[in-house]
Amino acid sequence: MVESITQIRVRYAETDQMGYVHHGIYPQYYEIGRTEQLRSRGFSYKELENKGIILPVHSLSIIYHKPVQYDELLTLKTILSAKPSVKLIFDYEIYNENAELLKLSQFGTYFC
Q1: Would you call 103 exposed, middle or buried from its count of C-beta atoms within 10 A (0-12, 13-18, 19+)?
Q2: How far does Cα 13 stand from its chain's mean position?
Q3: Alpha carbon distance 67, 18 (integer Å)
Q4: What distance in Å separates the CA atoms of residue 26 and residue 83, rounded to the nearest whole number?
């Protein structure tokens, strides 16, 4: 299991009229976490794609525990939960500045 931490500050454009992060934004946060985790291990998406390896998403599951608001500083924990094979499964945990768990997610990708 490989874990990495990425901090993200919620931007105004990511929120809805109530000031909460729109549900469609979380996959973008997870993309940031995946990309940064790969980069920290010496890989980049660009390099992988240049070698003909792409990682299409085949599934996404999100459990929303608490809403997230504009200007919150989030800590995104990205976890590569299994040894890489033909597919990668990343788990995600999002925490606020009070270390409260806000979101749990799982993202599955396949090597192509």
Answers
A1: buried
A2: 18
A3: 11
A4: 24
- Burial of residue 58, with CB atoms counted within 10 A of its CB: 0-12 exposed, 13-18 middle, 19 or more buried: exposed
pLDDT band at 26 (very low <50, low <70, confident <90, very high): very high
Task: Please state the separation of Cα 19 from the chain's center in Å.
Answer: 21
Per-residue pLDDT for 112 more than 70? Answer: no
How far apart are the C-alpha atoms of 65 and 34, rounded to whole Å?
A: 21
Instruction: Name the residue with higher pLDDT: 19 or 84.
Output: 19
- Identify the band that residue 111 occupies on the pLDDT scale cut at 50, 70 and 90: low
Whether 22 and 84 have beta carbons less than 8 Å apart is answered as no
- Which domains does the chain show, CATH number per domain? 2-110 (3.10.129.10)
In sequence order, the β-bridge partners of residue 21 are 15
**What are the catalytic residues?**
16
